[in-house]
Amino acid sequence: MTKTILVINAGSSSVKFQLFGVTDHDLLGLRVKGQIEGIGTRPRLLAKDAAGELLVDNTWPTADVDSVPKALDKVVGFLREHVGGNLPVAIGHRVVHGGADYKQPVIITDAVLERLRRLAPLAPLHQLNNLAPISAIRSRHPHLLQVACFDTAFHRGHPDVADRFAIPEQLFGEGVRRYGFHGLSYEYIAKRLAEVAPAIAGGRVVVAHLGSGSSMCALVAGKSVESTMGFTALDGLPMGTRPGQMDPGIVLYLMTEKHMSARSIEQLLYNECGLKGLSGISNDVRELLASTSSRARLALEYFVHRVCLSAGMLAAAMGGIDGIVFTAGIGENAPSIRENVLRRLSWLGLEVDSAANARGGPCISTERSRISCYVIPTDEELMIARHTLCLLGDGASAEFEEKRA
After folding, report:
1. Which one of 94, 151, 219, 264 is least enclosed by Cβ atoms within 10 Å?
2. Are residues 324 and 397 located together in one domain of the fold?
């Protein structure tokens, strides 16, 4: 019987999952891909097989799926019915923040879980939601191997100067540093570049992961050397509901002049800013593109403006630029955003192929362009499955088996 690895990417209102089969030669093959969304509001489970054929489209009353554990129950029930009743050999999880402790994926233990919970204040939208399914599974299947794969880990090879703030050394020693995020996506793109765009894979590439959460990364020979995100997932580009880079004095102003509490400021910065705050309409780029509102137009122009500024900053960090890659929800699916960015970067010698851009690439620059530009879909879940498989096959897995025996 084929061994399987389950990958879980849990958010506050959704749980994405992919099930991979593992061959005798340790090759991964996608079997099922889906998500349960609207947890606590309008729960809906959608899943497709490897060929893209719909396997299930179910909805439930809100009370039936009002938490991540209940959502997991629905996912497990679906997998048992459509795939088989056997447990996977391991489960890989996306965990946004690994802090200073974790530079690579790690097998989950009680001690690891506790250390990761302490990082929740640095990623309040993500961390506890990422950890919720891990805890739920451990309570029911304590002997099932689970692996945490971190969005921060890919950036841990940065030069020291790129990871610091201009603050006292003591704070840096306590972990106040620039971590960077979306590392699983950037790691996947770095590996795909060798297949899709080998001419620039070993060079200097800016990758723009543009979605509800957005950031950009500078890759030199496939390694991260700089990123727009820092200590938390608030920094850098404007996002759906997060402001991106801003003067820290704004926080002091909100405290002293507006008398806002830390909790109120956190709620504002994580949930009411970004494209939502600028437009006053929505955090969804699709809605803003369809709107005739001047504020919607301002929000999109601001987004493009900050992406272009960041591209220049990252090019400076690399000492030049050979290519640009767009990925994630906006990067892959909003050709007008891509074109506006690339036209503003024409001073770099970049020339966009409008027809190729409208088709979605993969190459969207002309043959005359000095810089190559690509659209490459990301696959964080496949990256997680690969890391999980690696840990299954090394000494870490054997040590885990010994401890749980």
Report:
1. 264
2. no
- Highest-confidence range of 52-66, 128-142, 188-202, by mean pLDDT? 188-202
Are 324 and 399 contained in the same domain? no
The single residue of 26, 66, 73, 151 carrying the catalytic annotation is 151
Question: What pLDDT sits at residue 402?
Answer: 42
> Domain check: are 277 and 148 in the same one?
no
**Strand partners for 10:** 15
Phi (first) and psi of residue 201, to 5 degrees: -60, -35
Q: What is the arithmetic mean of pLDDT over 2-28?
A: 86
73 given a catalytic annotation: no
> Which DSSP string corresponds to 271-297?
HT-HHHHHHSS-S-HHHHHH---HHHH
Split into its structural domains, the chain has a count of 2
My answer on whether omega of the bond before 133 falls inside 30° of 0, hence cis, is no
Q: Which pLDDT tens digit goes with each residue over 70-110?
A: 888 899 889 888 877 678 999 999 999 999 889 999 999 99
Q: Is the overall model pTM greater than 0.85, yes or no?
A: yes
What is the C-alpha separation between 131 and 120, in angstroms, rounded? 10
Structure tokens given for 353: 């192929």
Note whether 289 and 336 are same-domain residues.
yes
Helix (H, G, I), strand (E, B) or coil at 398: helix
Do 397 and 275 share a structural domain?
Answer: no
* Domain presence at residue 239: yes
Please, what is the average pLDDT of the chain? 92
User: In the chain, what percentage of residues exceed pLDDT 70?
Assistant: 96
| Identity of the amino acid at 301 | E
Q: Are residues 138 and 233 in the same domain?
A: no
Residue range of the domain that includes 38: 3-156+383-404
Q: Residue 119's domain is classified under what CATH number? A: 3.30.420.40
Residue 352: enclosing H or E segment and its boundaries? none
